[in-house]
Amino acid sequence: MAVEFKLPDLGENVKSADVVSLMVAVGDTIAKNQPVIEAETDKAVMEIPSSVAGKITAISVKKGDTVKVGQVVLTVDESAAAKPVDKKADRRKEDKKESPAPQPEAPVSSSREAAPAPAPAATPAPAQPAAPVPVSSAQGPVAAAPSVRQFAREIGIDIHQVPGTGPGGRISVEDVKAYARTRAAAGGRAPASDKPRAERQAMTKIRKVTAAHMAKCWNTVPHVTIFDKADVTDLEAERQQFKKKAEQAGGKLTITPMFMKIAAAALKVFPNLNASIDTEKSEIELHHYCNLGVAVDTPRGLVVPVIRDVDKKNIIELALEIGNLSIKARDGKLLPDDMSGGTFTITNLGSIGTGFFTPIVNHPEVAILGMGRAVMEPVWDGKQFIPRLMAPLSLSFDHRLVDGADGARFLRWIVQAVENPLLISLEG
Question: Given 213, 287, 363, 399, which residue is catalytic?
Answer without folding.
Answer: 399
